[in-house]
Write a structure and sequence with these properties.
The protein is α/β, with parallel strands linked by helices. It has 14 helices and 23 strands. The chain has 2 domains: 213 residues, UDP-n-acetylglucosamine1-carboxyvinyl-transferase, Chain (Alpha-beta prism); 208 residues, UDP-n-acetylglucosamine1-carboxyvinyl-transferase, Chain. The structure holds shikimate-3-phosphate.
């Protein structure tokens, strides 16, 4: 794709928008639908490249999955109906598919090999491989088991009690999925609660799981039954338009039917701390998830200290919040976010480099960054570095820059938001 020229905007953003389905929930719907016996129907599925990689993985294991845009029908014979894939499985850019699928494959009687693109090949897999090995899994990855490509020889697994060192829902979910196939009980005790879509969806598929604060327990060898899943809109995608409305003077927009699960709404709490005028309405509960609307008006934002337990609740929104902070009154400090270094790019480096190139004053720290507010941003040539969230952050920055931005590798956005530019048009 040719580099894109992005021009500043001279009028307010307005109108209503329903963002695409949640990425985390879409992945889990495919996984549980493939493990559950019967016909599962998923609506508002996110047909971005990451979730399509999860579909392909289960198709390679013999599951009948029909996907037409946002509707997916899965006809599965259940766990025992899965078959050994003939070919290595390509996970593309998708860390969620890698960590969750490793949990499933560890307990299935097959040999499989997983690989991904350049970015995924550099992301740590030992965080999930280690607990799976404690359960009895046999995995073998590059650099002594740390990275993809990784081969899995499925085994009979035993449940464990696991206290994760990293605050990662992907790791938690991989272990829970392995626990589902294992003998006995699996317990996970998190130091900070991470997104709980796996727990919610297991219940929606008729599974039994006990959640007591940060302690989660399930017993293995459960039979799941097919379900109808409506995927809520993705708050991580909505975040880009929320920030756009805050940045462009006189804007007011409403995002409808968006997921408001408390483990994902750290961004709303951070915005409240930044003095933002925001109206949140919960309208429904579907499959254990809360859905509602968010109305956002342009406001004068203040810098804030963003750290601690809120970080896992907004980890994917930190790049776009960093852009917002460049326009705040005062300084914003992001701490306790070292996990940003293990995303599709090292997002401390990629955010700092991008915002600095635009003229902002941003300093990296080991576990976050310090952003001075009140910057005047100037258009320049930028690269998404193949990271969808960096690509979208750059597009939103272009709305308020002096001069144009030339964006290289805008197609990375297709990973989580294929209709991003169309949706942006709807509110401009
Ligand atoms: C995800 C969890 C988060 C998030 C990712 C999706 C998930 O990763 O960054 O985009 O679906 O469980 P970690 O759990 O590794 O922090």
């Amino acid at each position: 794709m040719k580099p894109l020229t992005l021009e500043p905007i001279h009028s307010p953003l307005s109108g209503e928008l329903a963002v695409p389905g949640d990425k985390s929930i879409s992945h889990r719907a495919i996984i549980f639908g493939s493990l559950a016996k019967g016909t599962t129907i998923i609506t508002n599925f996110l047909d971005g490249e990451d979730c399509l990689a999860t579909i392909k993985a289960f198709q390679l294991m013999g599951v009948d999955i029909e996907q037409q845009h946002q509707k997916v029908t899965i006809r599965s014979k259940g766990i025992d109906g899965l078959t050994e894939p003939l070919l290595p499985i390509n996970l593309g850019n998708s860390g969620t598919t890698a960590r969750l699928l490793l949990g499933v494959l560890a307990g299935l009687p097959f040999h499989t090999t997983l690989y991904g693109d350049q970015s995924l090949t550099k992301r740590p897999m030992d965080r999930i491989a280690k607990p799976l090995e404690q359960m009895g899994a046999k995995l073998d990855g590059r650099e002594m088991g740390k990275y993809l490509p990784m081969a899995v020889r499925g085994q009979s697994l035993k449940g464990i009690t696991f206290r994760p060192q990293v605050k990662s829902a992907q790791v938690k979910s991989g272990v829970l999925l392995a626990g589902l196939l294992a003998e006995g009980k699996t317990t996970i005790i998190e130091s900070t609660k991470t997104r709980d879509h796996t727990e919610n969806m297991l219940t929606a598929f008729g599974g039994n799981i006990r959640v007591n604060g940060n302690e989660i327990t399930l017993v293995g060898k459960q039979q799941l039954t097919a379900a109808k899943i409506q995927v809520p809109g993705d708050i991580s995608s909505a975040a880009f338009f929320i920030v756009a409305a805050l940045l462009v003077p006189n804007s007011e927009i409403t995002i409808k039917e968006v997921g408001l699960n408390h483990t994902r709404t750290g961004i709303l709490d951070a915005l409240a701390a930044m003095n933002v005028n925001i109206e949140i309405k919960e309208t429904a509960h579907v499959g254990g998830e809360v859905i509602g609307s968010i109305t956002i008006k342009h406001s004068q934002i203040h810098g804030a200290d963003i750290s601690g337990d809120i970080i896992p609740r907004m980890i994917d929104e930190l790049p776009i919040i960093a852009l917002l902070a460049t326009q705040a009154k005062g300084k914003t400090i992001i701490r306790d976010a070292e996990e940003l270094r293990y995303k599709e790019t090292d997002r401390i480096d990629s955010v700092v480099q991008t915002l600095t190139a635009l003229g902002a004053n941003v300093k990296p720290t080991n576990d976050g960054m310090i952003i001075e507010g009140g910057a005047s941003l100037k258009g320049t040539q930028l690269n998404s570095y193949g990271d969808h969230r960096i690509g979208m952050m750059i597009v939103i920055a272009s709305l308020i820059c002096e001069g144009n931005i030339t964006l290289i590798d805008a197609e990375a956005i297709n990973v989580s938001y294929p209709r991003f530019f169309e949706d942006l048009k709807k509110i401009t």
